[in-house]
Structures are given as C-alpha cells and as structure tokens.
Write a structure and sequence with these properties.
Blueprint (H helix, E strand, L loop, with lengths): L11 H61 L3 H15 L3 H26 L7 H35 L3 H8 L9
C-alpha cells in the first residue's frame, strides 16, 4: 500500500492547483458574461436611440449633396460634403460617428449656403429646402437623444474601468464610447 500514488484529493499541491484553476475559470466565465452584457446594453441603447437618427440624417445629407450638384455643379463645397457623407458612413463606434457627424454638419451647412448664393433662396417647400430641414431636425433630435445614450455609456465606462473588468472588456471587445461629450 505504501507504493500507491495519492489521489488528487490527497495531493495538496494538485488540489490547490485545481482550486486556483476553478477560481480563474469562474472569474473569466462569469466576468466575461457580465462584461459582454454591459457592452450589449450600450450597443442596444445606441441602436434604439441614435442609430435611426443618424441614418435619417445621412439620407438627408445625401439628398442635399445630390440636389446641390444638380444646381451648383461639382464645386469644392460639393466634394467636401460628399466626402463627409462617405466618412460618416464608414465611421465605426459612437465616438467616431459623433466626430464624423460634426464634420458632416459643417460641410453640408457650407454647401447649402453656397447653393443659396448661386441660386438665391430656394422657395419654401422646395426639395433642397425640405432636405435641409430634415437634416437640421435630425441633428436637433440627435442632440436630445445623446444625453440618454451617454448616461448609459458613462455608467458602463465606470463599470468597465476596474480590474478584472477592464481586462475582460479588452478580451471580449466591450466598449462604451460616449456620443460627444
């Protein structure tokens, strides 16, 4: 009987190793699920509050760019506004989309004002004026909605700052970027 190897329960080193392994698996398993849930909550809030408004704003900007090209031609302001539309479409994440939206606003505003100088003030109800009204309205709605989104994003950032949440967030790709400041 003396030559029998001890079972893992009797082997103290092995028991400690199994316990440490179980703790690590528990932390990563439960932690990544929790961190992933926080990231999904932020994404859901973005989708329900801001995404639709951004999509409608981009569509209005595309309409303004297309109508302006027909009126004013292929001007520098047209090219810059068109590039801004493409940039916001390519932007990933709330922070990048916010920054692209600020640029889009400036470029489309400049383009719209230039068309006024070329063609005079468009009549109320004209296609260009209606597109611009929609574009401006969507920006106002974004400004109001970003507060709700940012409340969720800032709360998530606070939860994701500490250890091991910050490490787990990096592993699962959970982000909580504010939409503007």
């Amino acid at each position: 009987m003396k030559d029998a190897k001890p079972t893992w329960i009797e082997n103290r080193k092995l028991a400690v190793l199994v316990l440490v392994f179980a703790i690590i698996i528990s932390i990563f398993g439960i932690g990544t699920a929790k961190v992933g849930s926080i990231g999904r909550k932020v994404q859901t809030q973005f989708s329900s509050v801001l995404s639709g408004e951004l999509t409608a704003r981009i569509a209005a900007a595309e309409g303004i760019v297309a109508a302006s090209e027909a009126v004013a031609g292929d001007t520098a302001a047209y090219k810059e506004a068109d590039a801004a539309v493409q940039a916001i479409k390519a932007a990933k994440g709330a922070k990048a989309q916010y920054e692209a939206n600020v640029i889009l606003n400036n470029k489309v505003e400049t383009l719209y004002q230039n068309v006024h100088l070329i063609n005079g003030e468009p009549a109320m109800g004209s296609g260009l004026q209606m597109q611009y009204s929609e574009f401006s309205s969507r920006n106002n709605r974004l400004d109001r909605a970003k507060g709700d989104y940012n409340t969720v994003a800032f709360a998530a950032q606070k939860k994701l700052r500490g250890f091991p949440a910050n490490m787990l967030a990096a592993l699962v790709g959970a982000k909580a970027e504010p939409f503007g400041a």
